[in-house]
Amino acid sequence: MYLHEHHKPMSTPAVAQLIIGFKNQVGAVAVPPTRERAISIIKDVFISAAERDIYTGDSVIVNIIDKDGVHEERFPLRRD
Protein backbone atom coordinates (compact mmCIF):
# COMPACT_ATOMS: atom_id res chain seq x y z
CA MET A 1 0.00 0.00 0.00
CA TYR A 2 2.76 2.45 0.94
CA LEU A 3 4.68 1.66 -2.24
CA HIS A 4 1.57 2.26 -4.35
CA GLU A 5 0.76 5.63 -2.76
CA HIS A 6 4.28 7.04 -2.42
CA HIS A 7 6.11 5.25 -5.27
CA LYS A 8 8.96 4.18 -3.00
CA PRO A 9 9.51 1.27 -0.60
CA MET A 10 8.90 1.76 3.11
CA SER A 11 11.96 1.67 5.34
CA THR A 12 12.39 -1.69 7.04
CA PRO A 13 13.09 -0.40 10.59
CA ALA A 14 9.77 1.45 10.66
CA VAL A 15 7.85 -1.73 9.88
CA ALA A 16 10.04 -4.08 11.93
CA GLN A 17 8.82 -2.61 15.21
CA LEU A 18 5.25 -3.41 14.26
CA ILE A 19 5.66 -6.99 13.06
CA ILE A 20 8.45 -8.52 15.15
CA GLY A 21 6.59 -8.60 18.47
CA PHE A 22 8.81 -9.78 21.33
CA LYS A 23 11.71 -10.89 19.09
CA ASN A 24 13.41 -7.49 19.27
CA GLN A 25 13.15 -7.19 23.07
CA VAL A 26 15.80 -8.75 25.31
CA GLY A 27 14.38 -10.99 28.02
CA ALA A 28 10.75 -10.38 27.05
CA VAL A 29 8.44 -13.36 27.36
CA ALA A 30 5.00 -13.57 25.78
CA VAL A 31 2.49 -14.27 28.54
CA PRO A 32 -1.01 -15.45 27.60
CA PRO A 33 -3.71 -13.08 28.87
CA THR A 34 -5.96 -14.10 31.74
CA ARG A 35 -9.59 -14.88 30.97
CA GLU A 36 -10.65 -11.49 32.34
CA ARG A 37 -8.02 -9.64 30.29
CA ALA A 38 -8.98 -11.50 27.10
CA ILE A 39 -12.67 -10.62 27.60
CA SER A 40 -11.71 -7.00 28.30
CA ILE A 41 -9.73 -6.84 25.03
CA ILE A 42 -12.66 -8.33 23.10
CA LYS A 43 -15.06 -5.79 24.63
CA ASP A 44 -12.73 -2.91 23.74
CA VAL A 45 -12.36 -4.13 20.15
CA PHE A 46 -16.10 -4.39 19.56
CA ILE A 47 -16.89 -1.10 21.33
CA SER A 48 -14.29 0.64 19.15
CA ALA A 49 -15.75 -0.93 16.01
CA ALA A 50 -19.29 0.03 17.02
CA GLU A 51 -18.25 3.67 17.48
CA ARG A 52 -16.97 3.80 13.89
CA ASP A 53 -19.58 1.73 12.07
CA ILE A 54 -23.24 2.71 12.02
CA TYR A 55 -24.30 -0.78 10.91
CA THR A 56 -22.93 -2.53 14.00
CA GLY A 57 -25.60 -3.67 16.45
CA ASP A 58 -26.11 -2.70 20.08
CA SER A 59 -24.57 -5.80 21.66
CA VAL A 60 -22.16 -8.64 21.01
CA ILE A 61 -22.39 -12.30 21.99
CA VAL A 62 -19.07 -13.85 22.99
CA ASN A 63 -18.64 -17.61 23.25
CA ILE A 64 -16.02 -18.47 25.85
CA ILE A 65 -14.49 -21.92 25.48
CA ASP A 66 -12.69 -23.37 28.49
CA LYS A 67 -12.13 -26.73 30.18
CA ASP A 68 -15.70 -26.65 31.55
CA GLY A 69 -17.31 -26.21 28.14
CA VAL A 70 -18.71 -23.32 26.14
CA HIS A 71 -20.21 -20.31 27.90
CA GLU A 72 -22.12 -17.56 26.14
CA GLU A 73 -21.95 -13.97 27.39
CA ARG A 74 -23.70 -10.94 25.95
CA PHE A 75 -22.16 -7.48 26.26
CA PRO A 76 -23.83 -4.17 25.41
CA LEU A 77 -21.89 -1.99 22.99
CA ARG A 78 -23.76 1.30 23.06
CA ARG A 79 -27.04 2.81 24.05
CA ASP A 80 -28.44 5.02 21.29
| Residue runs with pLDDT of under 50 for 5 or more positions | none
CA-CA gap between termini: 36 Å
SSE pattern, N- to C-terminal:
HHHEE
Mean pLDDT across all residues, rounded? Answer: 79
Please count the helical segments.
3
InterPro entries: Ntn_hydrolases_N (IPR029055)
Protein name: Proteasome, subunit beta, putative
Keywords: Hydrolase, Proteasome
Enzyme class: hydrolase
Protein described:
- With 80 residues, the chain is of the alpha+beta class.
- It has one domain.
- Helices cover 39% and strands 20% of the residues.
- It has helices at 2-6, 12-19, 35-52, and strands at residues 59-66, 69-76.
- Strands 1-2 form a two-stranded antiparallel sheet.
- β1 (59-66) and β2 form a beta hairpin.
- It is flat.
Question: What's the quick description here?
Answer:
With 80 residues, the chain is of the alpha+beta class.
SSE topology:
Elements: H1 2-6, H2 12-19, H3 35-52, E1 59-66, E2 69-76
Antiparallel strand pairs: 1-2
Spell out the key features of this protein.
alpha+beta; 80 residues; two-stranded antiparallel ribbon
